[in-house]
Each structure stands twice: as structure tokens, then as C-alpha cells.
Amino acid sequence: MIVRILAEGQWTVADDRLDALNELDSAVEAAIANDDQEAFTKSLVALLDAVRTSGNPLPDDTLEDSDLILPPADATLEEVRELLSEDGLIPG
Amino acid sequence: MTLMKRFSLIFRAKADKALDRAEDPRETLDYSYKRQLELLSKVRRGVADVATSRKRVELQVTQLEQQSNKLTEQAQKALAMNREDLAREALTRKSALTGQIGDLKAQHAQLQGEEEKLTLASQRLQAKVESFRTRKETIKATYTAAEAQTRINEAFSGISEEMGDVGMAVQRAEDKTAQMQARAGAIDELISSGALDDASTVNRGDDIARELEAMSSQSDVESELAALKAGTSGGTPQAIDAADSAPAQIEASQVEATPVAEPRKEEGQA
After folding, report:
1. Is the predicted pLDDT of residue B195 greater than 70, yes or no?
2. Contact A29/B3, CB-based, under 8 Å?
3. Number of domains present in the structure of chain B
4. What ipTM was predicted for this assembly?
């Protein structure tokens, strides 16, 4: 599985790490739902750290789509919410 | 659907939408390559812009630190002359500067971070653009338009995502830098207006330096006088005598505010 962290690059992450990542992802989601910027930053940093530590960086010259794309570490709640709520782009 | 999945889909949809394909897929290759080069030069300009802002903040920090040091020296001098009021005033001004310097240093760190991120982004993009170019030439030389489609889709994978990513990174860096530029402009104005200055150059800031200068010429006169008296009478000069003969250049209120006998103890150090 290839994961991109925006503004940082791409990592290959073993598929069996997905459950752990999903768990961290739920915390990010909860923080967004609660409109809690502090919890959002904390959980996002934890999620990105997990990707960086459990994955291997892809070489710069590879041209491959990512399976997952994650917001940059310094993203604000508003930025992420804005992107998530843009019309016509959310498939279901 | 998890947040990650949603975010990924939306981001990819945006990136793909921006690709704008031509009818002949091989033309799309050239068109996309041109756009990639444009983005590459845009991100390089972005790096240069952020570096310019960073240097500006660096210069401001240096200027404010010089002023801050000057105020410390003035406070020490004032205290040596037993003018706690002046020392307090100098330190008050200094503490306002310290706050500004702290802010600027935080901004500097942020700009440095942006600069590093953009530099890495431009390196990644350059590597990918180079890969794309090689693949593009192979595809154009080897395949017919119909055959090329699958290969082209493969080549587009990753590059469109990278372009979306880098495009967003440049945009965010520009936004952040613009905010800091506005603040840096305000500080430049403060510096040039003298509001942050100590300073021996500006009206309001004048007073500490001027008064210290007056004080030190006063004590020069006093110690010379004391030396003269010691020479002529052989006795220790009286504090009151010396203070009475202080030069008139000091405002009367300031002289009165200073305890007459105490400055004498400091004269040796002043």
C-alpha cells in the first residue's frame, strides 16, 4: 500500500499495518467532528508518525498513485474540513 | 468510509480534474509535461520568495537585538549613576523589544520550515518530471495513439498527484508568507518611525541617552572638581559642595530628584 503525506512524499506501508492506521484515523475523525483543533493536530501527528515509522519512503522518481493521501502535518481543522466538504467531489 | 479514504479520493479527483486531457493522448503528454515544467519553476520561485522573507526577518531581528543591547548598556550606565528611574525606563523599553524579537524568531523558524519543505518538494517534483519525460519519449516513439493510452495513464499516475501536492504546498507557503510579509512591513515601519528605537537618533528615544550624557559630564566635572579641591585643601570634598557646582545643563527637577549625597559614592565607577 502506498501512502502519501501531502507536502512530504510517499511511503510504502505493509497492508497489515492498515488496522493500526485506521485506529489512529478514527481519532482524527473524532477531533474533526468535535471541532477540536488541539486534538486534531495531536491525532494527525500520531497518524503521520505511524506512516513514517512503519513505511519505507518511495524514491523521488517513481510515478505511482497513492492508495491513501493524508493531510500535511501542519494542516488546520478548517483546511481539512474545507477540502472534505467541497461539493461534487465526495463519492457517496 | 474512513477519513483517510475520503480525503484521498477528493484530493485525487481534484488533481485529475486539473489535468485537462487533449484528444490525442500523445498531445496530452506534451501538454502535461509543459505544465509540469511550469509548476517546477513556480515552486522554485516559491523557494526564492520564502528565502527573501526569511532574510528580511533575520535583518529585523538583528536590528532589534542591537537596540536591545544598547538599552541594556544604558540601563547599566544609568544604574552606575544611581539613576534607577532611567534604568527602569530603559529596561521597560527593552522588554517591549524582547517580545517583538521573540515573535520574529518564531516567524523566522516558520519561514525556515517552509523553505525546507518547498526545497524538498521541488526536488521530488524535479525527479518525477524527469521520469515522466523519459517515459513520454518512449511512449511517443513506440506506440500508436490507441496503444499509447494505457501507458499514458500509467505515466500520469503519480505525476498528477505530485502536481496537486506541490501546487497545494506552494499555495500554502505563499499564504503564510503573505501574512508574515504584512507583519514584517509593520515592524519595518515601527523601526523607521523610531517607535521601537531607544535611540540616540529619534526624538522620543533621545531622552535616556541625553540624560546619561549630561550625567556623565556632570560627574566628570564633579570628579575633576573634587581632585582640584583635594589638591588645594588636602581634605575630602563635601558631597554638597560638589553637587551645588553641577553644570546647569541638567534640568533642575532632575537634579532635585537625585539624592544629593549618594551619587558621590558612584563617582569612582562612573
Report:
1. no
2. yes
3. 2
4. 0.83
